[in-house]
Amino acid sequence: MGIILTIVIAVIIIYCILNSKLKKERNKIINKFGEPTWSSSDGIGVLLYDNLKKIIIYGEAIDYKDIIDFNINNDISYKKTISMGETISKGIIGGLLFGGTGAIIGASTTSSKIDTKIKEYKFNITIRNINNPYIEYETQSEEEAKRIAATLKLIIDNRENL
User: Fold this and answer.
1) Is residue 117 within 8 Å of 79, Cβ to Cβ?
2) Domain presence at residue 28
3) Which run of H or of E encompasses 75?
4) What is the mean pLDDT of the chain?
5) Residue stretches of the chain with pLDDT short of 70
6) pTM over 0.70
């Protein structure tokens, strides 16, 4: 019991320290650039300053004109599920009709379903910077990924007008 309590307290302390650092970093950026037009759900990963034509990703300010391209890689998880009720009922029916062999064959003919779920969206953004030509951003939120992708596409498509 004492070990679990110690671990819980340590996790809470680490969370508070990290959260405090993130808030300080966000405040530093806001003091420099002002309130963002939009920010990612964590409040610090992506900050969009449309009036300044800048996007800040993990603290790195990037001018719209310096964004060359982007792509998204999805981290997909696969989960195979088999209905136990269907397996048992098909095994019983096969067993009643054809004995032990029928039970095995009946149970083995159950259908399985593979569920796919995107665990993470990883953006690779190519920027005009010879020392650091790309930046990565990861999110687990589908809505946030759609918003960032649409924003980056608009920035790239309208780059000539900047």
Assistant:
1) yes
2) no
3) strand 67-82
4) 80
5) 1, 16, 18-19, 75-116, 162
6) no
Q: Which two tokens stand for residue 158?
A: 């309208």
Q: What are phi and psi of 50, to 5 degrees?
A: -65, -35
26 occurs within a structural domain: no
Bridge partners, residue 139, by sequence: 121
Give 125-148 pLDDT, tens digit per residue: 999 999 999 999 999 888 999 999
Dist. CA 27–CA 31, nearest whole Å? 6
- C-alpha pair distances (Å), 22 with each of 46, 59, 109: 12, 10, 53
Domain range for 162:
66-162
Q: Specify the amino acid at residue 29.
A: I
116 in a structural domain: yes
pLDDT computed for residue 27 by the predictor: 84
The number of distinct structural domains making up the chain is 1
CB 149 within 8 A of CB 52: no
Q: Report CA-CA distances (Å) from 156 to 66, 99, 108, 141, 152.
A: 9, 67, 53, 22, 6
Q: Which residues contact 104 (CB under 8 A, 6 or more apart)?
A: 91, 94
Amino acid letter, 143: E
Work out the angle at residue 36's Cα, subtended by the Cα atoms of residues 33 and 42, and round it to the nearest 5 degrees.
115
Establish if 56 belongs to a structural domain: no
